[in-house]
């Protein structure tokens, strides 16, 4: 499939809309931090407005980046920053609006990123990757500037996956429809994929959690076969999203006790999965002990 530059040329206003929406999101993000001053607002607006575009242009060798060559980008980001600073109090109350705004940012930058890559005669697959990077590049830069762990690196809604979906949609439809129509469709796909997070509780798979659950099931099966399960442990609970816990047998006597000191205490050996911060959870310690016992017997 041959994709010609004439077919793909996006109007300049589409690029400027992407910069404006991104810069407005950066200004609102800056307004959430009580320590950010005027320079900080302008910096975050610029990072969100064309940070992803700069990363895209560097990857494509399009130097100096378009955001620096073209003054319209800087002016658009400045106007968005001014609006964000002037109405940050009101905009912060529009939580649902901000979510849709953020979703549009991801979709628009994915489309512009793929479009720019295809204009450079990059193959479709690398173009999709560049579009995905451009869609979340500004967000990553803002996280770095604010000293935060980047949200796309940890468990959460499918933000980067939404950008990938939008980029792939644009690349597939690029040679069949008008660029503006393609951008609208790809942005809508991005929003729908991102919407699956809050509506359907979809999260990006976490390899370490999957490995933990496999170890838990194997350790539980071995302990049950050997009769070494902790007292009171009945069976593994069914999967409940991020939980991998066990159920504990309840007391057969439902009547409350008069003396609280006489109440039986239950110690949960196996708990739900948590990422952990440099230390093992009780469940991981129990799994390790079962695996160690099994190794010694072998």
Overview of the structural elements:
The structure is a single chain. The protein contains 12 helices and 2 strands. It has 298 residues and is mainly α. The protein has 2 domains: 5-200, no CATH class; 207-253 and 261-297, no CATH class. Strands 1-2 form a two-stranded antiparallel ribbon. Helix 8 (124-145) runs antiparallel to helix 9. Residues 1-7, 239-254 and 263-271 have low confidence and may be disordered.
Short structural summary:
By secondary structure, this protein is mainly α.
Please compute the radius of gyration using only Cα atoms.
26 Å
- Structural class by helix and strand composition: mainly alpha
Distance between the termini: 58 Å
Count of structural domains: 2
Shape: elongated
Helix content: 55-70%
- The succession of helices and strands, N to C, reads HHHHHHHHHHHEEH
Strand percentage: under 5%
- Determine the number of helices (DSSP H or I, runs of at least 4 residues): 12
**E-strand count:** 2
